[in-house]
Amino acid sequence: MQETRRGDKRYAYEFSLSDHADLTAALLVSPAMVVLSGYRYEAIHRPLEEAGWERTDVDVPISAARQREGLRSVESLWRNPAAVAAWERARLQPRLFALDEDDEEGER
Q1: Is 105 inside any structural domain?
Q2: Mean pLDDT confidence for 86-102
Q3: Angle formed by the axes of helices 42-50 and 17-29, to 10°?
Q4: Domain total for the chain?
Q5: Is the pLDDT of residue 40 over 60?
Q6: Rounded CA separation 40/68 (Å)
Q7: Cα-Cα-Cα-Cα dihedral of 95, 96, 99, 104, to 10°?
Q8: What pLDDT is attached to residue 96?
Q9: Residue range 33-53: average pLDDT?
Q10: 40 falls within a domain
Q11: Any idea what the Cα angle at residue 17 is, between residues 41 and 14, rounded to 5°?
Q12: 2, 25, 31, 83: which sits with the fewest CB atoms below 10 Å from its CB?
């Protein structure tokens, strides 16, 4: 959204506040695993967090061209409860061919 950026740069297609609200509403009722990235905008993203979506913030350079100036921004990544649960299941599931310390080829 233009409101989250400095300057006059625009994308070829810019979501309006209404477009973002519609997307948020659709994501909240989706049964799919969803991961969303972008800049945090309170009015749009608060409903996600109130519905149990996990947010991870990452400090990043504003742009590669301006990295030398040290300008930074915070981008966020949201995962809905279904995506968080799938991540946890995958993380905790034992590996079929887990390597042990004595065998680098995975054979037992």
Answers
A1: no
A2: 72
A3: 10
A4: 1
A5: yes
A6: 24
A7: -140
A8: 65
A9: 92
A10: yes
A11: 100
A12: 31
CA distance to 25, 55, 97, per residue, from 103 (Å): 50, 38, 11
Instruction: Give the number of C-alpha atoms closer than 13 A to the C-alpha of residue 16, restricted to the C-beta side.
Output: 3
Query: What is the identity of the amino acid at 90?
Result: A
- Tell me whether residue 83 is in a domain: yes
**Nearest-10 Cα torsion for 75, 78, 83, 89:** 70
Average pLDDT, the chain: 81
pLDDT for the residue numbered 43: 85
Tell me how far apart the alpha carbons of residues 36 and 82 are, in angstroms, rounded to a whole number: 13
Domain membership flag for residue 36: yes
Token pair of 2 as six digits: 């233009």
Task: Domain of residue 80: give its range.
Answer: 2-91
> Dihedrals φ, ψ of 72, to 5°?
-135, 165
Q: What pLDDT is stored for residue 104 in this prediction? A: 54
* HSE (side-chain half, CA atoms, 13 Å) at 9: 5
DSSP per-residue letters across 75-94: EEEEE-HHHHHHHHHHHHSP
